[in-house]
Amino acid sequence: MINAIDPNQLLTQMRAAQAQATQQTNAVAQAQDSGRVDFSELVKTAVDKVNETGQASSNLKEAFEMGAPNVSLVDVMIASQKATVAFEATVQVRNKLVRAYEEVMRMSV
Question: What's the pTM value of the predicted model, to 2 decimals?
Fold first, then answer.
């Protein structure tokens, strides 16, 4: 059974995503204010978030397939798209970092 999209639920999810993004931005700003940014920690945190998003998507998908009454197809599709976008963004950032590293390694000193 496919449920109609509830605009209030969608708006709530969008606000939650915005709040999460704001928290991450604030954490970066606080690290910069202290004068020191730990790049490896930022990367690790970002990769962990992408992993959590993928796992949450998989869990929702599995619950829907098992017939859980509180999981709608809309929730599954939104979670799946979030996980896909997060993973694709991570791959693009990785590709940019690799290209930058290769460029630096080609520089003559």
Answer: 0.62
